[in-house]
Amino acid sequence: LLCRMGTKLSVSLEGAFEPEIAPRVDRPSTFDPQYGFDGKRKPREMKATWEEMDQYNLKPGQRDYCAHLLMPLMKCQTENAPFAGHACDSARSAWDRCEYEDYISRIKEFERERRLLQRKARKEATN
């Protein structure tokens, strides 16, 4: 999950052998999202509505926090086909950047959850 060699394997093995300290990616965090932060963290919100995503026939994997940038890209590609490559560079760049930032934030949240679970397990072991 991180960009280091073998990390994905070690996280997978950790989840198999020590499930109590392995974060569940299919569920929300077990800790308060504000825990460990001085200021308030702004909750993430969808900018695209379900109706807009239905209008563009977005697949389930495309209905993420960057859908609001994917729809203009799809529109641009449709309007400029078959030469949409350079005409839609700015829209493509904005969507790619959003997807990258979303990926990084998910990795950070996973790692935060993992470390908090490890800390909780250490505290319970000393009690």
Report on this structure.
Residues 100-127 form a coiled coil. This protein is mostly helical. The protein has five helices and no strands. The protein has helices at residues 7-17, 50-55, 67-79, 84-87, 89-126. Helix 3 packs antiparallel against helix 5. The radius of gyration is 19 Å and the shape is elongated. Residues 1-6 have low confidence and may be disordered.
Number of helices: 5
In angstroms, what separates the terminal alpha carbons?
Answer: 32 Å
The share of residues in extended strands comes to under 5%
Radius of gyration: 19 Å
The biggest sheet, with number of strands, parallel, antiparallel or mixed sense and barrel status, is: none
Indicate the low-confidence ranges by residue numbers. 1-6
Global outline: elongated
Helix content: 55-70%
Oligomer: single chain
Mean pLDDT: 85
Secondary-structure element order, N to C: HHHHH
Number of strands: 0
Structural class: mainly alpha
How are the SSEs ordered, and which strands pair?
Elements: H1 7-17, H2 50-55, H3 67-79, H4 84-87, H5 89-126
Helix pairs in contact: 3-5
Structural key phrases:
127 residues; mainly alpha; 57% helix
Kindly summarize this structure in a few lines.
The chain is mainly α and 127 residues long. The protein has helices at 7-17, 50-55, 67-79, 84-87, 89-126.
